[in-house]
Design goal:
The complex is a heterodimer of chains A (248) and B (221).
Chain A (H helix, E strand, L loop, with lengths): L5 H8 L5 H9 L11 H5 L13 H7 L7 H13 L6 H5 L6 H16 L4 H13 L7 H13 L19 E4 L3 H5 L1 H13 L4 E2 L17 H18 L3 E4 L2
Chain B lengths: L2 H35 L1 H5 L3 H12 L4 H5 L1 H20 L1 H9 L11 H24 L1 H6 L2 H22 L7 H4 L1 H15 L7 H17 L6
Helix pairs in contact in B: 1-11, 1-12, 3-12, 5-7, 7-9, 9-11
The chains are: A mainly alpha (248), B mainly alpha (221).
Chain lengths: 248, 221
C-alpha cells in the first residue's frame, strides 16, 4: 500500500471543500436522525457504525489533525466508503440541515483514489479500459462496428429492412449504450434497433464515444470521467446530432 | 470599575457585538465562497424551493418529523424557547430600557417565561442523557457536543436560579448568580459564530442549497 501522510490528504481536500461541504462538516449536529434512513444500517442490525453521519467522520479527523493515515486507517476508510455506503443519498432527504452524506462520501472516495491510490480492483480494471479503449469492456472500434453489423444480420429473417445507421450525419438521435451490451447482451442493441425502426426515428449509433457508463465517477477519477463525456459529445457535435440518448 | 460592572457593561456589549458581527460575517463568507465553489446553486437558484424548504423544516411539516414526532416536538420547543426567552424576558427588556438606547418592547408573561426556561433546561438535560445512553448517538458524539449543550443550557439554568433565588440568598453561588448568568450568556453568544451553534445562520444556507438541488430534480425539498 502506498505510504500517505496527512498533509497530502489535507492538500487534496482543501481546494475541493466547497461552501456546502465546509458547512456540512461543521454544523452536523450528530443527532443520528439519519441512522435508520440507511439500508446498510438496517441490514446490519442497526449497527451504529453504519450511521451515515459517521461515514463522513474521516474528513473532520483528517482536517483537524486527529487522523494518522497509516495502513489500518486507510483500510478502514476504504471499507467504510466502498462497502458501507453506495451514495444513494437517501439520508439527505431526512437530514434537517440537508446534509448530503452521499456527496461527502464521494469526496472521500476521490481522496482515496487520487492520494492513496485505493479503489476496488474491478473499478481499477474498468478505468484502465476506459483510458485505453474509451469503454469499460476493452472493445476496439473494429469489435464494436463488427458487433453492430452481425447483430443486425441475425435479425435478417424477421426484419429484412432493419439497419443500424452508423455515424450518420444530422440524425435527430445519437444512441449510446453500456459497453456490456456489445460484449454480453447484443440482444439489447437488437431490441433498441427494432424499436427505433418501428418508430421510424431518425437515429444513429456512433463509431466512437458510444460508451455511456461512467464508472470512474465512483472513485472520483474526474480526469477519466471528463474524457468519457467529451468523447460522446465531441462525436455528437461532429455528427451534428440533435440529442444524445442513453441506453436503459 | 469592579468586575460586576465590567461584566454587566463592556463585556455584554462585546459579546453582543461578536455575536451579531460574527453571524453576519459567517453569512457573507458562505455567500462569497459559494459564488466561487458552488456555482450550480447560484445558477439554479429558485426562491420557490428555498422558501418551501424553510416552511417545511422550520415547521413540523417534514418527513423527519413524522418519523420521530416526540423527539422533534421537544427539539422544536427547545429552539423556540431558546430564541424567544433572551429577547422577550422582561428582566432583559428592563436592561434595554435602562441602557443608552432606552429601547423597550413587549415582554413574555413572567409565568410563561418561567415554564419556558424550565422547558429549555429539562429538554437540554434530556438531550445530554440521550447522547450518553443511546449507542447511535454515542458513536457520533464528541466532547464538543456535550460542551455546547452545557453552554446552551447554563444561561437558562443560571437565569432561572437568579430570577427565583432557588439557591437561597447567601453563599458564593447564590450571591453571584446574576454574574454567572451574564457570563454564561456571553459565553454562548460569543461561541455561536465559531462553533456548531453557527447553524443558527448556516442552517438557512445549507437547507436552501440542498433544496435548490433537490427541487430542480423534483425530489422532496
Amino acid at each position: 500500500m502506498k505510504h500517505v501522510n496527512r498533509q497530502e490528504l489535507v492538500d487534496f481536500l482543501k481546494p475541493r471543500l466547497n461552501a456546502r461541504f465546509q458547512t456540512w462538516i461543521e454544523i452536523c449536529a450528530h443527532c443520528a436522525i439519519c441512522a435508520d434512513t440507511c439500508h446498510f444500517y438496517l441490514a446490519h442490525d442497526r449497527n451504529p457504525s453504519m450511521i451515515p453521519a459517521h461515514k463522513a467522520r474521516f474528513l473532520n479527523e483528517i482536517l483537524k489533525g486527529k487522523a494518522v493515515p497509516d495502513e489500518a486507517y486507510l483500510k478502514k476508510m476504504y471499507e467504510t466508503l466502498y462497502y458501507e455506503c453506495n451514495m444513494c443519498r437517501r439520508c439527505a432527504l431526512y437530514c434537517p440541515f440537508g446534509i448530503d452524506v452521499g456527496l461527502l462520501v464521494s469526496l472521500q472516495r476521490a481522496m482515496l483514489h487520487n492520494v492513496a491510490g485505493l479503489r476496488p480492483a474491478g473499478l481499477e480494471a474498468a478505468i484502465e479500459n476506459y483510458r485505453q479503449f474509451g469503454n469499460q469492456m476493452a472493445l476496439t472500434e473494429e469489435d464494436w462496428v463488427d458487433t453492430l453489423e452481425w447483430t443486425i444480420e441475425e435479425l435478417e429473417d424477421d426484419y429484412p429492412t432493419l439497419e443500424i445507421p452508423i455515424d450518420k450525419q444530422n440524425a435527430k438521435i445519437m444512441y449510446t449504450v453500456n459497453a456490456r451490451e456489445p460484449k454480453f447482451y447484443p440482444q439489447d442493441i437488437q431490441e433498441a434497433a427494432i424499436i427505433f425502426n418501428a418508430a421510424q426515428e431518425d437515429w444513429t449509433m456512433p463509431r466512437v464515444g458510444w460508451e455511456d457508463t461512467n464508472l470512474s465517477m465512483f472513485c472520483g477519477d474526474l480526469t477519466t470521467s471528463k474524457k468519457l463525456v467529451e468523447n460522446t459529445f465531441r462525436q455528437a457535435d461532429k455528427l451534428n446530432a440533435k440529442q444524445v440518448a442513453i441506453t436503459e | 470599575m469592579d468586575f460586576y460592572a465590567f461584566v454587566e457593561g463592556p463585556l455584554t456589549w462585546v459579546a453582543i457585538l461578536v455575536f451579531l458581527v460574527g453571524i453576519v460575517v459567517r453569512a457573507i463568507m458562505y455567500y462569497r465562497t459559494s459564488k466561487k465553489t458552488d456555482k450550480l446553486i447560484h445558477k439554479y437558484f429558485s426562491l420557490k424551493w428555498v422558501l418551501a424548504t424553510y416552511v417545511k423544516w422550520l415547521f413540523p411539516a417534514n418527513v423527519t418529523f413524522k418519523k420521530q414526532p416526540v423527539y422533534f416536538l421537544l427539539v422544536y420547543i427547545f429552539h423556540i424557547c431558546l430564541i424567544l426567552l433572551p429577547i422577550f424576558a422582561y428582566q432583559h427588556i428592563i436592561m434595554w430600557e435602562m441602557s443608552r438606547f432606552g429601547w423597550s418592547w413587549i415582554s413574555l408573561p413572567a409565568g410563561l417565561a418561567q415554564w419556558m426556561t424550565l422547558a429549555v433546561i429539562a429538554i437540554g438535560i434530556y438531550l445530554i442523557l440521550r447522547r450518553a445512553i443511546l449507542a447511535d448517538l454515542r458513536i457520533l458524539t464528541t466532547a464538543g457536543d456535550y460542551g455546547l449543550l452545557v453552554v446552551t443550557i447554563l444561561p437558562f439554568l443560571t437565569g432561572y436560579f437568579a430570577a427565583h433565588a432557588t439557591l437561597g440568598t447567601t453563599g458564593f453561588l447564590a450571591e453571584n448568580m446574576q454574574l454567572f448568568h451574564m457570563l454564561s450568556g456571553q459565553l454562548m453568544l460569543i461561541l455561536i459564530p465559531f462553533t456548531k451553534l453557527s447553524h443558527m445562520v448556516l442552517f438557512f444556507f445549507s437547507r436552501g442549497a440542498t433544496a435548490i438541488e433537490f427541487g430542480r430534480r423534483d425530489y422532496s425539498v
